[in-house]
Amino acid sequence: MTVKKEVYLTFDDGIQAGTEEVLSILKQTNVPATFYLIGKHLFNAYEKDRHKCMWLLNEIYQNHSIGNHSYYHGNDEYRKYYEEGICVDDTWKCLTVLQDFEKNEDELRWYLQELRDNFRANGNDIHVTRKTVKLARLPGSNSWVYSKKTGDAGSDLVSKLPGKQTGRWATKLFDIGYQVFGWDVEWEMNFDFYNEALQLKEDLYCRNGKDNPDSRLMNFDIDMYANENVLKDRLTETWEQVAGKVLKLQKDKIVLLMHDRAFRRGMAFAGKAEETEKLRALILYLKGRGIIFKTLDQY
């Protein structure tokens, strides 16, 4: 039996380990998605391998949609982030949530301009038909503030705000032109790297004192492909469970939240399939049920 639903696949925290694998599955299954990018992860990817980073960014820009997920992701200290802002370097320079998103917007614009310049230098140009809607998602917050017809200033405003502090910033982002989306369904996963980051911060605080900011708290990078990390930040639900949640939800439009790194290679052991195969299975199953896939600029 087919169902009349639109599903919006969204992937958070790129560009990072797993982004390439996700893009490969989306290409094979011919479905679009929205990628919410984090500035510090994009910076790390660019520093590691400039060519590969720009290739991935081009794949996203040409075939999918890009959303702003902040530059620092609140340094994973969400309460402080939404109440006070965050310290971003050893000089005690602090950013508000709005400034953090504006910084990421500037960074994304810089990388995309370099992408265009590289294409033109080779006698080509970038032609994209739908990149006019500004999308944002708050770190760690399922906040929504958007127009019923995305990008249509004359349409009715829809707000779903989980808390006073996060709602305040979601509204501010909307006021400067963003459509802010949360999610309806999440493909649940472990957050081992997040817990380890909190422990690292606690250790550094104990060693240096909370009044001594340490740059390692702001932008440390992890090799997620390393053998000791292969089991971390992995899916805790089967694709069948996620499909069940999507189909049971009484909505015509469903936003599905996932994270790039959950689908990075390295989980094929003891007869189990790679996580990417689970993503492929979910997409093909939903396609078979008549689901239509769209990007959030088409919401």
UniProtKB/TrEMBL annotation:
Domain NodB homology: 5-294
GO molecular function: hydrolase activity, acting on carbon-nitrogen (but not peptide) bonds
Pfam families assigned: Polysacc_deac_1
Listed GO biological process terms: carbohydrate metabolic process
Signal sequence, start to end: none
PANTHER family tied to this protein: GLYCOSYL TRANSFERASE-RELATED, POLYSACCHARIDE DEACETYLASE YHEN-RELATED
Protein name: NodB homology domain-containing protein
Organism: Niastella caeni
